[in-house]
Amino acid sequence: MITKETEHKNYIFQSDRLGFRDWLPSDIEIMSEINADPKVMEFFPAIQSKQETLEFIERMQNQLKAKGFCYFAVDKLDTKEFIGFIGLSEQNFESDFTPCIDIGWRIRVEDWNNGYATEGAKRCLEYAFHDLKIKKINSIAPLINVRSEAVMKKIGMHKIKNFLHPRLHDTPRLQECVLYEIHQNQNQN
Q: Which residues, by range, are in coiled-coil regions (predicted)?
């Protein structure tokens, strides 16, 4: 649960321009706005409500406590401004490659095209492989989400296959997804 006592920004790790941390009460409103932006949520079945955002943040906090990782809240270090999330999360939908650890990102539109997703994802891979000793990371996106697939390639991931996502069967335009993968011993670009 998000409490006021956690309302300070202690970074778990940093990249050149970004700080990665646990979630704070002050993130709820901004993350709700990000999740309600049709442009950000273009490749999801629907925008998310404030309640859904709050439930997501609580899941991430619980996962961080239990596993040492989550989709981290991310700030720009120069301004301390919260811009969205980049990080790792467990995926357990029904598939031949799950359960797996997924790397993902969701950043507010005004911070797109600055290389934050790529920089942040590279740093999260480093944290996963070197600090947490995770052996393999996957990334999943709808086939039509070419921007996310470009980030997957930039961070050194390799395409494994296309698949039909079981949780997207009611959204045909999104159901065909790509699966990318990177292993601990692979060189990152």
A: none
Omega before residue 99 within 30° of 0, cis: yes
Residue 44's SS3 state is coil
* Residue listed under structure tokens 């270090």: 77
Predicted TM-score (pTM) of this structure? 0.92
Q: Backbone dihedral region of 91: left (phi > 0), alpha (psi from -120 to 50 degrees) or beta?
A: beta
Residue whose tokens read 């970004």: 18
Residue positions counted in the chain: 189
- How many whole angstroms from its chain centre is CA 88? 6
pLDDT in tens, 32-53: 999 999 999 999 999 999 999 9
Q: Say whether 172 sits in a helix, a strand or coil.
A: helix
